[in-house]
Amino acid sequence: MIVFFQSLISGILVGGIYALIGIGLTIIFGVMRVINFAHGDLLMLGMYATWLLFKYLGLDPYVALVVTMPLLFLWGALLQKVIINRVLGALPQNQILLTIGLGLIMSNSVMLLFTSDYRILTTSYSSSSFSLLGISISQPLLYSFLVTVAITGVLFWFLQTTDTGQAIRATAQDRDAAQLMGINVKRMSVLAFGLGTALAGTAGALLAPTYYIFPQVGGPFTLKAFVVVVLGGMGSIVGATLGGVLIGVTESMAAVYVGSGLKELVVYVLFLLILLFRPAGLLGKSRA
After folding, report:
1. For 208-218, how does the pLDDT look when each residue is reduced to its tens digit (9 = 90+)?
2. H helices within the chain, ranges in order?
3. Cα gap 240→132, rounded to integer Å
4. Between the CA of residue 229 and those of 18, 21, 99, 225, 247, what are the distances in Å?
């Protein structure tokens, strides 16, 4: 029973970070209808920014968020304004190819600057844990989960209560109607891509103390982000949150009861089964 709860808690803590990655992707898709295959590479930039701030300025990874989040937001806004905005009306396959190209440019640029060597960000608490009712809880994972909950809460508040947040939601629901109501949809697109990038970078910063850092680290997380978003329902922030936690728990349980080498297989089997019965995702709305 302790093993069950141990894997459950670990899965929830990791799933919180997956949810944050998925929320960033679903905001971008919801507002712009752009499928961003560079999302994992934006996460990778967050990891490297955190590592650099830690190595050269001695900033704790969680303190470094006050620097990495604004930096990644500005980078995302710049990408949208200069590049992504030009293909909003293009065919979906052209958008996909563009974001894949952007991801390759970012990962290879980082590889030129820092080589392909694996980096490790080691803090005084990287391998620390504490016991609660016989369950061992990783300190960095707990800290990351708490930061994720706080950021997600602020994001919900922003989207639900502020004029800008409601304008972003209106643009996501119907871009043409929002424009007719006087909303600057181009500005909302810049904000949405900046927010999505900042959330991806934040997830990277939260993963940095517990994960290897290298230029191609973003690839698996891009795939996982799409699984989270499609599982929860494209465009649904609540769905992305639920999907991230579900994926985290499934991975953790599968590693214990099936085998660590098969945990990814179990995740994708669950993904396919849910889509067989809920093609629109857990909280998505069918267009049929």
Report:
1. 988 899 999 99
2. 2-32, 39-57, 65-82, 92-114, 139-161, 163-173, 175-180, 185-207, 218-232, 237-257, 263-277
3. 29
4. 10, 9, 17, 6, 11
Helix (H, G, I), strand (E, B) or coil at 213: strand
Does residue 132 lie in a domain region?
A: no
User: What's the rounded Cα separation, in Å, for the pair 162 and 214?
Assistant: 38
Exposure letters 97-121 (e unless 16+ CB within 10 A, then b): ebbbebbeebbeebeeeeeeeebeb
Q: Please, which residues bridge with residue 132 across strands?
A: 135
- Residue at 231 is within a domain: yes
Q: Alpha helix locations (H) across 174-262?
A: 175-180, 185-207, 218-232, 237-257
Could you tell me if 17 and 144 are in contact, meaning their C-beta atoms sit under 8 angstroms apart?
A: yes
Show Cβ contacts of residue 268 under 8 Å, excluding neighbours closer than 6 positions: 227
Residue 96 maps to a domain: yes
Task: Give the domain extent around 236.
Answer: 2-126+139-277
| pLDDT at residue 37 is higher than 80 | yes
CATH value at residue 115: 1.10.3470
The closest alpha carbon to 112, from 24, 215, 231, 31, belongs to: 215
The 10s digit of each residue's pLDDT in 226-271 is 888 888 877 778 888 888 999 999 989 988 888 877 888 888 888 8
Would you give the DSSP letter of residue 119?
Answer: B
Q: Which of 205, 271, 209 is nearest to 244 (CA)?
A: 271
Cα dihedral 103, 107, 108, 113 in deg (nearest 10): 140
Amino acid 286: pLDDT:
52
Measured distance CA(83)–CA(105) in Å, rounded: 13
Residue partners of 185: CB distance under 8 A and separation at least 6: 171, 175, 178, 179
User: What does the pLDDT read at residue 288?
Assistant: 44
Whether residue 38 lies inside any domain: the answer is yes
